[in-house]
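Hi C.,

You asked whether I'd gotten around to modeling the 265-residue construct. I have! Everything is below, sequence then structure, no commentary in between.
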Amino acid sequence: MKAAVLVCLAASLPGVRAETNLEHGKRVVDEAIQALGGENFLHMQDRIESGRAYSFYREKLSGLSIAKIYTRYLIRPEPPVAGFLGVRERQAFGKKEDSAVLFADGQGYDITFRGARPLADDVMERWRESTLRNIFYILRQRLGEPGLIVESRGSDVVENQPVDIVDVTDFENRVVTVYFNSLTHLPAKQVTNRRDPKTKDLNEEVTRFSKYREVNGIPWPYDIQRERNGEKIYQMYSDSVEINKGLTDNLFTLPANMKILPKPK
């Protein structure tokens, strides 16, 4: 009661002004960037996550792969351009990495011993949307974009941890609600709604981030779990994460002699 009275008195004093939702949202995001390593995070060039990828169907395990995800950030234009997709990604599977999925420069391929098959349009669009809505990508690449708004929704206790809740809305009205742990300031969870391009159904997608470990001065989640409409669909548990390993373009481009297979209809 005394604390509440003091807050009210402070708010009534001349020159004392409560933060707006936009100011509070910016502060929460600034604290998150500092918690993630500050300049180390903002200048992260590439990343390799190695571990096990699990897929689920109706809450039951439907697939398990040894996975290695290579990510390389591109230099974003200055001033920032809305919707710029400045990242390349290669998802390799198996101990010998004998199959992979490649996303780079607006193109994607499913690579096997048979050759490289262009990914279907809906697969490419799903990856693009997932990337643009990912809070780590937003913090690393999208802040300052025209039309990007960060707004606080206050604080709460969610899933047994105190959180600061922020809505990130971009120029195309994508909304990502992010829950930052109030003590560590690290992203704990994000929620976004996305319409299925085929069925037109609106799906709620939830991603949880946990088991952070510091790599090159950057805390990174070793356990990432996703669910859709309340059902668990994916989990990536990393055994190791490497940052700034000097990944080059040849990892994200097809060999000149690789056979190109027909695109799926």
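If it helps when you're writing up: The chain has a mean pLDDT of 93.

Thanks,
B.
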